[in-house]
Amino acid sequence: MKRKDKPSFPLKAIREAISNALVHTDYSQRGAPIRVAVFDDRVEIENPGLLVGGFTIEDVRSGVSKLRNRVIGRVFKELNLIEQWGSGYQRMSASCRDLGLPEPMLEEVGFSFRVTFSLIKEPGSAVLNEKDQKIVSLIKVSAAEGGATPKYLSEKIGITTRAMSSRLHKLADAGYIVAVQKNPYDPKKRYLPVKQD
Q: CA nearest 158: which of 167, 145, 170?
């Protein structure tokens, strides 16, 4: 009854990237459109024009700003579509991190500039509460013995096996643990921690 929707797309970051594309496009390249492409695993925003002479991708990441189209930039600033010069990448990164997604990838492709937003969550990106942290810790301790069963974990934490199964499913989706099983109903199912590089 009190549903709360959480977008799977970093909407603020995508809006920022589209604003940047409009402000920094090289409009002298006739017939070259600004392109927004949506795939299963990513969103790409590409505009005609490489970075302004001497400007690097590292400069963009560090917050250095160099406008190609000053008039368009000034109009966007007046319309509050740009908050502060040079802060766009930081806002895009923060929007992605809030959803547990990697930072946007910036690259020069041919005669265009592309920003790619991955929609694949980074392992272990969700914020865990105290009970979930304890579950993950117990699974890490039991890894040497082949992992932990839902029954063992529910007894240790003090919740029902059904409630534990629900928590384990969410932790697996978030990339903290992995299930070792022959099928979803395997009575010998065990959980192991995800190996960190």
A: 167
Q: How confident is residue 95, by pLDDT bands cut at 50, 70 and 90?
A: confident
115: Cβ contacts below 8 Å, ≥ 6 apart? 17, 20, 21, 44, 45, 46, 92, 104, 105, 106
- Chain Cα centroid distance, residue 59: 22
Query: Global pTM?
Result: 0.60
Q: Which amino acid is at 32?
A: A
Inter-residue contact 72 to 63 (CB < 8 Å): no
Q: What is the DSSP string of 117-174?
A: EE-SPPTT-SPP-HHHHHHHHHHHHGGGGT-B-HHHHHHHHTS-HHHHHHHHHHHHHT
Sheet strands (E) in the chain: 35-38, 42-48, 105-109, 112-118, 177-180, 190-193
DSSP 35: E
pLDDT tens per residue, range 46-62 = 999 998 888 888 888 88
The model's pLDDT over 13-30, given as tens digits with 9 standing for 90+, comes to 999 999 999 999 999 998
What dihedral angle (degrees, nearest 10) is formed by the CA atoms of 117, 123, 124, 125?
0
65 to each of 44, 86, 87, how far by Cα in Å?
21, 5, 8
Structure token pair of residue 73: 């930039």
Residue 195, both tokens? 């190996």
